[in-house]
Give the backbone structure.
Amino acid sequence: MTTMANNSEKKRVLVSGGAGYIGSHVTVELIEAGYDVVVADNMSNCDMTCFEGVKKITGRDDIPFVKIDCCDADSVNKLFSDYRIDAVIHFAAFKAVGESVAEPIKYYRNNLDSFLNILEASKTHGGCNVLFSSSATVYGEAEKLPVTEESPRLPATSPYGNTKQICEDILRDVVSATASLSGSEGPVKGIALRYFNPIGAHPSALIGELPRGVPNNLVPFITQTAIGKRECLSIFGNDYPTEDGTCLRDYIDIVDLAKAHVAAVSRMLDGKMKKDYEIFNIGTGRPVSVYELVTKFEKVNGLKLNYKFAPRRPGDVVAIWADTALANEELGWKAERSVEDTLASAWAWEKHLAEK
Ligand code: UDP
């Protein structure tokens, strides 16, 4: 992985949505790799806990934080005028699948407008490198596993999933339309990272996932059950056509995932892209069942979890995991942390929250 060699040439990365779960871990890794970072967030789905944690981990009290809503074009423009931005990592989006089904207008407006504003500012401020946080949800219930970047994208089953597909397409089109721009307007180059299931927390236990209300995702539900905030974990479906009957997913450690962003940003900034728009799967390449994850969590943390088997959750795919060869070869990146260590970090984070 490339790191910045010379401080005087430090590149600056804008992390939109940088106070959230993935954004805060990415900010840490960028700073540790030698980049300057500007964090922008409207704080609609987080508080300052993680940003404060980022400052502690990096020992940097001076990380610029700008409270803006990326749906406001003027604010985004001002940000690009105030700072020279060499690359953007765009996380600022709503992410609750169920809510997106109930409130599609809210989701389409927020997730598309914010990205369009980032892209427009990227173009009009002389061009920029844009990394979009996409998702394995674009593959739907894939016919062939593991999925490669060439696997077909299937029709999205939720407005949330659809915004990921649409934003990928918007990025591809903007990259192509801006390729020959020069002068005050410039080309946008793009990478979409398709994440599998990000889990876990920073080894310091100073940053991690902070779901509001009842968690939708498996690991925060597990840790909240273990700490006693939830009575019982429901394992959704044990009659799937898998070995133990529960769904298979590719759980990727959050710090490994964050490091993939640094590798992708370095690729863009060091002029190593093979095409102006590229896509990479970011996963481990190893499927783990829900039941296996629960039992591993119990074993590694030495506790018993109260769980029961419950009916299938509508919209869940049976199985999905990544072919990671492209990311391994092109980004020089590989998931390294074991699922056990990741589950231990998730538990350490939950305990840290309980002590606060
Ligand atoms: N899951 C579960 N109980 C929960 C939450 C999730 O059994 O309380 C299962 C879910 O059905 C899926 C897997 O855990 O098979 C991962 O779900 P999650 O929502 O974390 O991520 P997804 O794969 O849906 O993006």
